[in-house]
Design the sequence.
C-alpha cells in the first residue's frame, strides 16, 4: 500500500518528520509531497536539513497567494499527483491550506484520509485555520488527537468513535528529540542575549497583523516590555510587510530578525524568560519546554496548554499583557506535569494504528 504524506508549511514539518520515520521503521511504502505553501529557505527547506526528513518526491511549488487561490492551486497540483500515483492513504497534518486542500482532493477521489492533530477547536470561525480543521476532520477516516479536548470535540460533532485515536503530540516528539542539540548551539549569543534574560516574540495571525490599529497597539505594548527586558522578534514575511506599512521605525530594545531555522528557534525558546506569541504550535512547545507563554489571543484551540501547561491567554489589551508579563517575572513557571502522552512516542503510536489499519484493508474479503 502507498501512503502519501503531505507537507506544505512550517508547522507541518515538525508534525510529519517523526511519523515518516516511524512508518519507515515499519517498512511501509511512502510518498512525500511538498506543496510549497512555505517556499523560502528559512520557512521550508531548512527543515529537511535539520529534521532529517527525506527530500520530497514531488514539489508542487504553489508559493504564496490569498486563501482561495492558494488552496485552489494546491488542489489542482495534488489532484494530478493522486491521478498519477494513486495512493491508498493520504496523511495530512495540522490546519494550514495544504492540509484541507489535500484532504478535499483525496476524499473526492475516494482515497482514505488520515489527519494528524485532529479535533482542535478554538470556537472562532473567523480564523481560517478553524475552518480548515473542521473540514479536514469531517473528511478524515483516521483522526489522531493530541489532547483530550480533541476527542471530546470530535464526538460532539458526530465523528464515529472508532475513527478517533488519542496518540499524543507528534510535534512534541520532534521538540524532545532535538532540544538538547538546539540548546547546545547557544543561539542567543549571536543576538547578544543572555539565557533567561530576554523575551521571544512571534506574531503572524491576520487578526493581529492585518488590523493596523491592533498591530500598532501590540507593538506599543511590546515597546513597554522592551524597557524591562530585551525582545527578540523573528518576523514572519507577511508581518514584516504590515509593520513597514505602519512606519513605526526602530523600537528601543526590540531586535527584529528574519525567520529562524528550527534548531535556532527551539534553542532561543528553551532559554527565553517568556514567549509572546499568537501561534498555536508555540503554545504547545513552550508547555513542553516549561517556559512561560503569553498568547496574544482571546481563545485557544489547545486548552491543555492553559490547564496543564505554562500558557496564559492575554488577548491584545495592553494592560492585561503588561500585568501578565510582570506576574511572570515575579514567579518562575515551576515544574509542570506534561499533558498525557506528550512523551516523545506519539509518532510511534500513530504509525502502529496506521499499520494495523492497512493490515485490516489487506485482509481477505476487503477490496
Sequence:
Amino acid at each position: 500500500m502507498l501512503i502519501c504524506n503531505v507537507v506544505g508549511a512550517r508547522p507541518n514539518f515538525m508534525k510529519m518528520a517523526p511519523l515518516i520515520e516511524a512508518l519507515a521503521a515499519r517498512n511501509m511504502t511512502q510518498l512525500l509531497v511538498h506543496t510549497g505553501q512555505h517556499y523560502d529557505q528559512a520557512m521550508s527547506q531548512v527543515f529537511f536539513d535539520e529534521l532529517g526528513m527525506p527530500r520530497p518526491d514531488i514539489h508542487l511549488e504553489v508559493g504564496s497567494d490569498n486563501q482561495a487561490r492558494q488552496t485552489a492551486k494546491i488542489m489542482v497540483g495534488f489532484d494530478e499527483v493522486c491521478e498519477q500515483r494513486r495512493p491508498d492513504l493520504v496523511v495530512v497534518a495540522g490546519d494550514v491550506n495544504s492540509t484541507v486542500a489535500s484532504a478535499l482532493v483525496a476524499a473526492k477521489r475516494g482515497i482514505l484520509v488520515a489527519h494528524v492533530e485532529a479535533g482542535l477547536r478554538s470556537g472562532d470561525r473567523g480564523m481560517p485555520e478553524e475552518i480548515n480543521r473542521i473540514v479536514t476532520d469531517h473528511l478524515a477516516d483516521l483522526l489522531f488527537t493530541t489532547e483530550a479536548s480533541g476527542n471530546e470535540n470530535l464526538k460532539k460533532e458526530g465523528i464515529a468513535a472508532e475513527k478517533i485515536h488519542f496518540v499524543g503530540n507528534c510535534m512534541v516528539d520532534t521538540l524532545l528529540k532535538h532540544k538538547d542539540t538546539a540548546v547546545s548551539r547557544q543561539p542567543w549569543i549571536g543576538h547578544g542575549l543572555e539565557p533567561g534574560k530576554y523575551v521571544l516574540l512571534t506574531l503572524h495571525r491576520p487578526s493581529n497583523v492585518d488590523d493596523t490599529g491592533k498591530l500598532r497597539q501590540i507593538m506599543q505594548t511590546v515597546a513597554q516590555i522592551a524597557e524591562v527586558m530585551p525582545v527578540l522578534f523573528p518576523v514572519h514575511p507577511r508581518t514584516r510587510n504590515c509593520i513597514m506599512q505602519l512606519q513605526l521605525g526602530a523600537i528601543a530594545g526590540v531586535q527584529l530578525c528574519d525567520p529562524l531555522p528550527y534548531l535556532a528557534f527551539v534553542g532561543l525558546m528553551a532559554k527565553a524568560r517568556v514567549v509572546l506569541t499568537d501561534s498555536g504550535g508555540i503554545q504547545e512547545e513552550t508547555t513542553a519546554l516549561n517556559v512561560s507563554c503569553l498568547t496574544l489571543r482571546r481563545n485557544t484551540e489547545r486548552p491543555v496548554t492553559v490547564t496543564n501547561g505554562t500558557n496564559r491567554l492575554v488577548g491584545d489589551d495592553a494592560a492585561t499583557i503588561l500585568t501578565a508579563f510582570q506576574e511572570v517575572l515575579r514567579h518562575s513557571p515551576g515544574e509542570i506535569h506534561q499533558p498525557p502522552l506528550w512523551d516523545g512516542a506519539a509518532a510511534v503510536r500513530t504509525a502502529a494504528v496506521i499499520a494495523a489499519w492497512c493490515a485490516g484493508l489487506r485482509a481477505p474479503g476487503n477490496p
Observations:
- The first strand starts at residue 2 and ends at 7.
